[in-house]
Amino acid sequence: MNTNASEIVRVDNVRKVYSDNGVPVDALRGINMTVLPGDFSVIAGPSGSGKTTLLNLIGTLDKPTEGAVYIDGEDVASKTRRQLADIRLRKIGFVFQAYNLNPVLSALENVEFTMMLRGIDAAERKRKSLALLEELGIGELANKRPNEMSGGQQQRVAIARAISNDPRLVLADEPTANLDSDTAVKLLELMEKLNHEDRITFVFSSHDPQVIGRAHRLLILKDGQIVDDKVNV
Amino acid sequence: MLSLIAWRNILRNKRRSFILILSIMVGVIALVLTDAFSIGMMQQMLTNQIGTDAGYIQIHSKGYHDDPTLKNSIENTAPVRAALSHDSTTVSFSERLRVFGLISSASNSSGVSIVGIVPREEERITTVHKYIVKGTYLTDKPDDIIISTATAEKLKVGIGDKVVIMASRIGGSVGAEACRVVGLFETFDSGFDQTHVYIPLETARKMLGAAGRVSEFVVNPIDPKQTDSISRQLRSRLPSDMEVLTYKQMLPLLVMQIQLYDQMIYIFYAIIAIALIFGIINTMLMAVMERTHEFGVDMAIGMSNKRIVTMILTEAFYLGAVGTVVGLAISLAIDIPLSHSGWNLAAFSQSLKSVGIGTKIYPVVGASTVLNAAIIIPIATVIGAIYPAMRAIKLQPVEAIRAS
Ligand SMILES: Nc1ncnc2c1ncn2[C@@H]1O[C@H](COP(=O)(O)OP(=O)(O)OP(=O)(O)O)[C@@H](O)[C@H]1O
Ligand SMILES: [Mg+2]
User: Fold this and answer.
1) Do A42 and A33 form a contact (C-beta atoms < 8 A)?
2) Closest ligand 1 atom, residue B402 Cα
3) A75 interfacial to chain B (CB closer than 8 Å)
4) Is A37-61+90-231 a CATH 3.40.50.300 domain?
5) Ligand 1 centroid to A225 CA: how many Å?
């Protein structure tokens, strides 16, 4: 398979069939797409259209039934579980709808955690994590636990965690769905800024018009197929 | 940082962690107490036997040990005395003439070991004089005899009463002597009590036609640890027709029992460890399954299986370590005072007496007991966490994240 050297992700004719108690469910039906450095892409579509399924495949959390997913030109299907964990650790940051911070760790420790997994020494990771929290405007929350923070604050910590290892790509599955619209806008502005200034690549899934409105590239998903692919909307 | 997370996770469900630590503590305490009491009991049985009768070392004529009759007693005691005189500062000794015979009163009779002793020597070697419950120990009068309260009851005699002892003399005829009961003893060993009576050595010699003879020299090192070295020295100094035996050879059953126990305790350790392992599997599995969603997120952000396993095993190890430390502290707090005061088992005194222990058990808390518990229990806890950890890393990240 020919892959462009600069592509971060290439999704090639991907089908994903789930089995719902023995009944096959076609979640994705022949998806082709790429993610390029600096992208700020949104995958939009109604509920059940396959957004989460697609992001999970790009994020190497799952494997396609047919077709292939390449990360930096490497076929995900050929990797072991351990290699995939390492790819996720070094190349992919995740932001979830439900924030999913570690409840026993403070904001600072949540960010440090991924750096620790990469083997960065304690002093260095503390310094970098604090700087990141400052940059995202939540420096004063460093020692708070997730249950002491608002949703917007938690999602900022989640973003800090996602970008802490300088990933090639951040995947965000409906990151604003649990937030009120003001908070959502601020969070989006923050991510736009990270995309602009730090050239961090984002791929979102969303049906939030505020998210869709900011997309540099919009992919519309319907019944497991991409029905529209617009650049620079 | 994994250890920090492990600690926080332990503190997260305090009730469950507390119950788990409590069960680990109970395991440790059960282990240490059982071990300490059993070792104490064994050692007591041994020192009791050594103390009432056997002593640490005995010197006989060759053959006496296998056939303890008068004809196998030592005729010429001079070489033995000479050998013992070398060690006069490190040992004390007594000489006995011992024969199996009959003691009778007007109403009954009983088969017993008749032991001729030199009271002043014997007092330094054995403890029987401490167990006189009525009357006195042997005095200088040749017709003195001391018997146990059990024998006295059987013969229906008391202090001052006359009894007759009888035994085969050295030539084969029967010797008899009339004696007066001057003291009654009662030790912790009912079997011993029923079968031993004591008379002065010279009376025994006269009755048995065994002038100058000694069945056994009982030799106690001042420091019991020197038993083996002193017995070796004695063996080299004595003529070849003498045998030197230590308590290990004289009480082989008891020594074997102690060795056997040393092995058996590992079975007990294994039982405790297995019970603990199942408890840990159960609880840790619950803890792991509750955190399915979290493990999914951990996997998504790139945590390797190895680290997830390490984190879970670390949690288990901390639980085990805390339980062990607290459990050991409690065990020692129970055991150490008891090792001085003894644990009074008067309620079971009859059955304890029949095995020669006495009414009190003094637990022995050895370094090996503490060490065994300190090693076995935390390891068992970690072993119990292996299966739950394996379950955690079998989770599929996508499904784990979907779980809530
Ligand atoms: N593990 C699964 N087993 C069976 N079917 C599944 C599974 N995950 C998703 N599906 C099905 O696959 C289809 C796509 O689901 P997916 O979650 O990707 O949609 P989505 O676009 O993210 O929806 P939403 O907006 O509700 O999050 C749906 O029909 C869903 O029911
Ligand atoms: Mg979804």
Assistant:
1) no
2) 1
3) no
4) yes
5) 13
- Supply the pLDDT for residue B352: 65
Which of A82, A104, A113 minimises the CB distance to B9?
A104
> How high does pLDDT run on average in chain A?
93
Contact B25, B330 (CB under 8 A): yes
Distance CA B70, CA B65 (A): 12
What burial letters (b/e) apply to B296-317, b meaning 16+ CB within 10 Å? bbbbbbbbbbebbbbbbbbbbb
And the tokens for B237?
């100094």
Q: Please, what is the average pLDDT of chain B? A: 91
What are the pLDDT digits (tens) for A157-181? 999 999 999 999 999 999 999 989 9
Ligand whose nearest atom lies closest to the CA of A44: 1
Task: Print burial letters for B37-60: b (CB count within 10 Å at least 16), e (below 16).
Answer: bbbbbbebbbebbbbbbbbbbbbb
CA B305 to chain centre: 49
User: Is B376 within 8 Å of B273 (Cβ atoms)?
Assistant: yes
Q: What is the DSSP string of B297-319?
A: HHHHTT--HHHHHHHHHHHHHHH
pLDDT of residue A89: 97
For the segment B154-203, what is each residue's pLDDT rounded down to a tens digit? Answer: 999 999 999 999 999 988 899 999 999 999 999 988 889 999 999 999 99
Chain B touched by A173 (CB under 8 Å): no
Please give the C-alpha separations between residue A5 and each of A9, A37, A87, A91, in angstroms, as whole numbers: 10, 11, 17, 15
Sheet (strand A66-71) strand order = A23-35, A9-20, A66-71, A74-75
pLDDT in tens, B232-241: 999 999 998 9
Residue of A229, A205, A215 lying closest to A48 (CA atoms)? A205
Shortest Cα–Cα distance, A20 to chain B (Å): 13
Q: Hey, where are the domains in chain A?
A: 37-61+90-231
Dihedral angle sign, alpha carbons of residues B224, B228, B234, B239: positive
**Per-residue confidence at B85, pLDDT binned at 50, 70, 90?**
confident
User: ipTM of the predicted structure?
Assistant: 0.94
Q: Where are the domains of chain B?
A: 2-49+254-402, 63-239
